[in-house]
Amino acid sequence: MAQAGYTPISLYYSTTAAAAPTAGNLANGELAININDGKLYYKDSGGSVQLIASKAGASGSVTSVDVSGGTTGLTTSGGPVTTSGTITLAGTLAVANGGTGQTTYTDGQLMIGNSTGNTLTKSTLTAGSGVTITNGSGSITISATGSGGTVTSVTASSPLASSGGNTPNISLTGTVGVANGGTGVASLTANNVIIGNGTSAVNFVAPGANGNILTSNGTTWVSSTPSGGSVSSAKVYFMGQF
User: Fold this and answer.
1) Fewer CB atoms inside 10 Å of the end CB: C or N, the chain?
2) This model's pTM is above 0.70
3) 26: containing domain
4) Measured between alpha carbons, how far is 3 from 23 in angstroms, rounded to an integer?
């Protein structure tokens, strides 16, 4: 309440927290105060509203804010903001900053990494023989025509044999070689002993004469007559009663 006999001087003011006057609210040199925040403003000769005092003390205040898109590929508009306003981002975010570098897509397109230039390219799948690809909004459908193919003939290589056709009978023919775990021969002679022969077909040793035995000659096994030996001297004793 003003003192009796005096006219009070009242500034342009606001009671709303954080409210600040705009340039259109003030004439040049006019003061304004926010009696909620305790902040005092004036309009300078350039037509901008400036904060000149605050009950919060000398903590400083930001008078202008602007934003730059840098190397992101984005652009900005609406800055700098001196009192209040909105800064808007536009453009396409680059791959190097986590974007795709793309602005449009068609149905079924996939993003494919390209290490050359660190880019992402757009591509759709290519259908092959007997394959159909249908690209939809947010979907890709792949289907195959036919029943997956039909066997018309089966052949075989020795020692296997095939009766042919699409339902063949596969059988073993010929002689299995030593290298494949066989003997390398098509028949075995009765009562002969089989002798290994390296990587070649096995050999045989026949029994020979009656009473022969299998002995080594230092190189291989042979059927030979056993040696009976000889007597070089002998003594004869007679037992009797005298």
Assistant:
1) C
2) no
3) 12-54
4) 33
